[in-house]
Amino acid sequence: MYNSVIDSPFKDKLANEAYHFYSEMVFKRIYPSLVTYNVLIDALFIREKLKEAKNVLVVMLKACVKPDIFTFNSLMNVYYLVNEVKIVKHVFYAMTHMGVNLDAYRYSISINRLCKDESVDEAMNIFSGNTSKEYSL
């Protein structure tokens, strides 16, 4: 139920209210699910509330909730938007080492972005499947 209550205000651009519901949920010792965290992280990033989104991510990791493809997609999207390609590289590396596989869509976006940033060698390494730390996004 809290997932809907949190998601709805974000859709209506009421981020503070949604974040308040999340805080209330935690205060009442109702443990957020991966879906709850993903809704919060994505919505906060979209609203450019990077600090709050990072805090939610830290809480999620401390609660031993493993990020999934949706969590990582949110992270990668926002860091591409704010032109922090180096951070995207770290996210990509963390993802591959946590066993979360990128989908074809995310690979396409990543390769396209690297080409735009004139990192063609890195794009080719991703395309060829070389995702070692040295050549990761």
Task: Explain this structure.
The protein is an all-alpha fold and 137 residues long. It folds into 2 domains: 1-65, no CATH class; 67-137, no CATH class. The chain contains 8 helices and no strands. The chain has helices at 2-11, 15-27, 34-46, 50-62, 69-81, 85-97, 104-116, 120-127. The chain is elongated. Residues 133-137 have low confidence and may be disordered.
Q: Structural class, judged by helices and strands?
A: mainly alpha
Stretches where pLDDT falls below 50 for ≥5 residues?
A: 133-137
- The proportion of strand residues reads under 5%
The general outline is elongated
In N-to-C order, the SSE pattern is: HHHHHHHH
Count of helix runs: 8
Q: How many distinct beta strands?
A: 0
Helix content: over 70%
Radius of gyration: 16 Å
Distance between the termini: 37 Å
Q: Specify the biggest β-sheet.
A: none
Give the mean pLDDT.
76
> How many domains, as an integer?
2
Short synopsis of the structure:
By secondary structure, this protein is an all-alpha fold. The protein has helices at 2-11, 15-27, 34-46, 50-62, 69-81, 85-97, 104-116, 120-127.
SSE order and pairing:
Layout: H1 2-11, H2 15-27, H3 34-46, H4 50-62, H5 69-81, H6 85-97, H7 104-116, H8 120-127
Helix pairs in contact: 1-2, 1-3, 2-3, 3-4, 3-5, 5-6, 7-8
Please supply descriptive tags for the structure shown above:
mainly alpha, 137 residues, single chain, 0% strand
